Amino acid sequence: AGGASGGINSAIHVWVEQRKAADSTEAPPATKYALLLDAGGLSMPTEAIDGGNDLQLLVTHMHSDHCTGIPALLAARTLNDKSTRVVLPHAADAEARLRRVLALFEELNTNEGEPYPFKLAIETAMPGAELAGPAQKRVVVPFATSHRVPSNGYAVVHRKRKLRPELLVDAATGEPLPKAEHAARMKQLRAELTEDELYETEEVVELAYTGDSTISWLDGAGASLALKAKLLVTEATFVCDAID
Fold first, then answer.
1. Among 95, 100, 191, 203, whose Cα sits 20 to 30 Å from the Cα of 185?
2. Interhelix angle 70-79/94-108, nearest 10 degrees
3. Pick from 206, 211, 85: which is nearest to 149 by CA?
4. What does the pLDDT look like over 62-73, one tens digit per residue?
5. In angstroms, how far is the first alpha carbon of the chain from the final one?
6. Residue 15, class by beta-carbon neighbours within 10 Å (0-12 exposed, 13-18 middle, 19+ buried)?
7. Residues 185, 241: Cα–Cα separation, whole Å
8. If you average pLDDT over residues 150-177, what whole number do you get?
């Protein structure tokens, strides 16, 4: 929900629901989470305002078309007793600037003459860092993008541990063991091997978002991660005869 118009407004609410293949369509999803990608103020998606208690907002950079919707979003969510986690690109004054703006809006929302504090947590993120993700076994990995000010893209990475497939094969034939023999083999393996020897970590990049960046982000260290994403949200630059 939401959308982006270059230089005017960017606010995209993305929600993810995952079900196991065997589940019916009526079954609750095995995993469900939502993210707000930037928060320009002209068309804040109502889904972000009404979303769950711990909405994660990923801000690519501190230009007004990407962050002026934050005070209104926080005001509405705080009234509904919902907290918001705001992630900003790492810059010396990014958090301080946002907090100055929020303090003014908290004064507008007075409660019997006292400022009405918003429910939020703010953190800044360096490219390559790992942040707590929006759901279990997920992390958010910022990556560098190219803009006139410090800017991040973000990737949501799902990490899950899987038994090494070669451990459940017949040593003589190389064929997979029958399921009836799995329990006995696992008991043996746990007695002989460490956790790291038993399991490997599989990484699935579920979502990546660049915001409005020049194409040079593709030369950065984070591009290899972002390009593996099941869903990549990036800007398509409008080019016409008026632009060299």
1. 203
2. 50
3. 211
4. 999 999 999 999
5. 33
6. middle
7. 67
8. 87
